Amino acid sequence: MATATGVQQERKADETALITGSEAIAVACKLADVDVVTAYPIRPYDTVMQYVAKLVANGDLDCEYIVAEGEHSQFEIVKHASACGARVFCGSSGVGWMYAMEALTVTPALKAAGVDADYFLLDSEYGHSASGRDAHKWAPRLRAFMESLE
Predict the structure, then answer these.
(1) Is residue 139 part of a domain?
(2) Domain holding 33: CATH number?
(3) Fewest CB within 10 angstroms: 32, 89, 112, 124, which?
(4) How many folded domains does the chain comprise?
């Protein structure tokens, strides 16, 4: 059995670290100062939510972390939270997106009402490995989001 020893040292602002794509997304949530995060344990994005949960548990991210009973519920939660002005984050798998599509169809109406609502569908032939093998598809989107925070 593996056990963790020591305490992870605080990284300096100018220090570069090699991290996974899932951890990078969690760090983006922290830097974006999200208010509400909804999670549902489904592959491939459950590792993202595990990293977000660690940030919340360690006190590095102050947000409402809600584990929903399904994708439909998590999308409804963030839809309504964003309509109230909260900065939100959630994710899912291909099957989850199809299940939750009912909640996503209101995105154009939210945009028309002035809410900064959007979603990004990663089209990949690699399935659950897409976050690693198709990083070139999602990395520009993440970079643009990060730059918008400056």
Answers:
(1) no
(2) 3.40.50.970
(3) 112
(4) 1
Written as six digits, the tokens of 149 are: 């925070």
Cβ-Cβ contacts under 8 Å for 120 (sequence gap 6 or more): 138, 141
Tokens (6 digits) for 2:
């593996």
Helix (H, G, I), strand (E, B) or coil at 76: helix
For the chain, where are the alpha helices, taking DSSP H only? Answer: 21-32, 46-57, 71-83, 94-99, 101-104, 107-112, 130-133, 135-148
Burial class from Cβ neighbours inside 10 Å (0-12, 13-18, 19+) for residue 26 reads buried
- For residue 3, the model assigns a pLDDT of 38
pLDDT tens profile 106-124: 777 788 888 877 766 666 6
Residue 93 included in any domain = yes
